[in-house]
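Quick log. Single chain, no ligands specified.
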Amino acid sequence: MTGSTPTVRVASAGTGKTTSLVVRYLELIDAGTPLRRVAGVTFTRAAADELRQRVGEATLQVERDGEYLGGLFRASRGSEDRFRLARNELEGALLTTIHGFMIAGLRLNAPRMGLDPGFGILAEWEAQALFEVELRSLLVLAQDPSHYLHEAARFLGNEAVPKALRLFQKRSLAERLTFASGPEERALAQLYQAALNAFDARLGATSLAPSEVERRALQMLGVSQARQRLAGRWPRVLVDEYQDVNPLQGSFFERLADSGVELELVGDPKQSIYGFRNADVAVFRRALERARAAGAVLPALDLSRRHSRAVLTLLNRLTKHLALGSKGFVAEEAPAVAGAGAQAEVAGAVEVHVVSGERALGDLRLREAELLAERLSAHHAAGMPYGDMAVLARSYTGLALVQRALSAQKIPNLLAQGRGYYERTEIRDVHHALSVGVDPGGSGLAPFLRSPFASLELQEVAEVWAQPQDERLAYLQRRFPAVAQRVAWLADTAALRPLDAVKQLLRAPVIGGKSYLELLGGRARENVDALLFDVAARPPADLTLLLDRLEMLARQADAGDVPQSGAGVRLLTVHASKGLEFGLTAVFDTGAWPSTRLDPVLVEPATGGVHLMGGAGYAQAADSARQRLRQESYRLLYVAASRARDTLILTGSEGAYGPRGWLAELLSLRLAGATAPTGVTVRRHDYAAPRPAPKSEPRHAAPLTPAPYIHARFEAGSLPPVTSPTRLVADDEPLPAAVLTSSEREIERGRVGWGSARGTLVHYAIGQNWAPDDEKALSTLASQEVLFPFSEQQRRELLGEVVALLGDYRALLGTTLPALAERRVDRAELPLAVRLGEAVWEGVVDRLYQVGGEWYLDDYKTDVTLAPERYYVQLGLYLNAMEDAIGVRPRGRLVFLRHAQVIEPATNELQRAVREALERR
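-> predicted structure:
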C-alpha cells in the first residue's frame, strides 16, 4: 500500500473549525464514503461528543432540506439514502480522542499485538503510582551489593526516585530515550529502564496507560498485517486540534499516512500551549511542510464568527506583529481574519489599562486588580451580566489577587480551578487518617494525631513520637486510649472498598459523638464532598492506590481546587480557558515576566536526548527549553485575547524599568494616538494605594423554621434498597456434600465462578435460540468474557458442559416444552424491577411465551442438584411481577436442564415461600 500526503488546514480562533469538520463529513458522505469508514479524532472527549452531535444534526438537516446552514453545504441529487444510512451508522461511527482511536486500532489487532482484546486503560496518575511501586521495589532489592542495580542506586541516592519519575512523566516526548555517557546519566538510564521493564511486565496484556497506548500503537504500525487491517477499517481519518499532539502521537499519524490512510489535519499553531503535557508544535509544522511540498495545504479558515470588530482588529494587529518577529508563530501560521455573521456587525471594545509607578510590581498589581474590578463593575452597570465575564491570568497567584479585589467590591466570582485542592487541610486529614488505617505506625501517624480525628496538642504528639516506632501504639493505648480506639477503628475502615472507606471516615460519629463532616465549614464540606464524588466516579482498585493518588496530586502544582457553584465572574488560568469564549474577557497582569524555571531533568522532544542538570549538554538543552517556553508564552497571549466575543480588557503594571512581557508587545502595536484602531483605547493610571477593604458588619439572619422531618430517622432494613431474588438463594444454607455424587463433587470442586459462567453462557445461548451444533454460535460463545478467567483446557471443558445442556434443552422442545413454532408470543431475557416489602427486586425472566391462549414463564436451571424449593421465592416474585404487568398470571415452571425435568410448583406454595421469606427478613 502506497503512502499518502495528509491535507493540512490552519484554523484561527473563532473561525468555525468544528463547522468545517462537519461540512467535511457531509462532503464525504455525499461522495459515497460510508460514515463507518471515517474516523474523527479530536483532543478531548467533550469535543468528540460535540462533533458527534453536530454531525448527527447536520445529516438529519441535509436528509430533510438537502442543505446545511443555509447553503454552506448542498447535497447532490439522489444522495438522500446516503445521508439516511449515515444517520443510522452514527452511533457506531468512531468519533473519539487520539488515545481512543489508538485503542480502537489496538483492540482490532489485539491478538496479533499480544494483548487481551478487553484490555483496560489506567489513568495516568495510577500508572505513575504503579511505576513508583516498581521503582521503589527495585531500589530495595538493589541494597544487596550483589544486585546488578546496586551501583546505580548507590550513585543516585535520594535523587533516584524523583529523577526517574520525571522521565516517566516525559515518556511521550520520544520513542526512545538516549542518555549521555556521564556516570549519573548511565546510572539513571539503567535504573529507569529496569523500572520501566518491570512496569510493562506488571501491566502485561490486560492493562495500558496513556503513553503505553501510544507506544503499542506505534509498534502496531510496524506490523504489516495489523497496519493493513487498521487502514482497511478506517481508510480516512480527520484529526482536529493537531497542534496539541505530542511527538509519539505525531509519529503515529505520520506512519499512518505512510501506510495509505488519507489524513486530514486541522489545527492552529498559534494555540499550541500544552508543552507541560508534552505537546510539541513542531509536529504540526512538520505536517504543514510536508503538505506544502505536495500542494496539499487547504485554504486557511479566515472568517471569524466569534469576535466583534474591535477585538478582531486587535487580534489581527497582534498576530501580524508577533509573526514578523517569529514570536510564537510565523506569517504562514497567522493569516488575517475577517469578521462574518452577526458578530461582524458588533462594534465591541478593547481596553488596555496600564498602572505605572515607582513602586514594586507587587504593589502595582494590587492597584491593577482593584482597577480591573472597577471596570467589570462599570460594564455590568452598562448591561453585561457577570456570568458572561471571565478574568484570565497566567497563574493562580494572579487570580487570587483578582478574587480578593472582586470580593472587596462585592462582585460575585467563581474560581473555576484554584491551586492546592489536594493540599487543603481537610483533604490531607482524610489522607492521613486512611494511611493510619493502612499502616498505623507509618509517617501519617504524626499529622493524624494533630488532626480533628485525634486533636492532640503538639507536646502530646511529641511524646508519642519520642517512643520507639514499634511501641508508639502501645503508648497511645496507655496514654490516650480514646485515640488508640480510633486507630483500631481505622484499621477496620481501611479494609473496606475505597469508596466505602472514605464514606465511613467522613460520616461515622467517632469524634466525640460527631462525624468529621460536622466539624467542617461550608467550603471545606464542599471539598470533601467533591472527593467523594471523585472516588465514586473513578474508583481505584484498592485503598493503597487511592492514597498514592492523593499524595501524587498534592505534589502537583496544577491540581486544582473544586469548582464553586453559583453565578459570577469566572476566574481561570489561560490554559483552562482554551476552547471557551465569553462576552467580556479580561486578561490580568500582562506585565508579568514569563517564568523560565526549568526541570533538572530535560528531555529533548522527538530526539529523546536526556540531560541532567550539571551534566554534559544540559546548558544547551536548557537554552532550547527556555526558547520553547518563550515561544509558548507568546501563543498564550493570543489564546487569552481570542477568548473575547464583544469586549476585551487587558491590564498590566509598569515599574521603573518600563513595560515587560506581554505588556511590552501590546504597547508596540500602536494602539494610541493617530494609529489607534476604532474601538481600542489605552489608558495609563498612576499608582494609588488600594482602598482598604470595607469592614463587613456581622449579619444575623432570622432563624429558619425546621422542617417537620428534620428529626426523622430511617432505620436500615434487613435488605438493601435494591436487591435480587437470587440473593435469597445465595444466602440459604449450602446443600450438604452427601447430596452430591462423587462425580458431581468433582465437577464443582476448586473452580470459582464455574457455575456462574456455565449458567450465563447457557442462558445466553437459549435466549438466542442457538442449536448445539451451530459452529458460528459456538465460536461466539467461546469469545465471551466470562471464559477469560479459566485456562484453555477449562474453557473447552466448560463449553462442553454448555453444549450438553443446550442439547438437553433442545430435546425438551416439542415434548415437555412447547416447540418454538407453536408459540404465538415468545420473549427471552426480560429484565424486571418490582417493589415488594422494603426493597425493589430486580431480575431477568428467562422466557415468557404464549401457547394456545395460555401464558408460560420458564426459569432455566443448570444446577447439578435437583432442589426446586430453593427457587420458589424467585419464581413467585417473577410471577407476581408478570401478573401485574400483563394482567394475567402465567404458569410458572422451573426447567432443570441437566435432569430433563420441568417442575411446576403450586401457586399456594410459591406465595407461601415469598411471604415467609419476607417475614423472615
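Residues 618-641 form the longest helix (24 residues).
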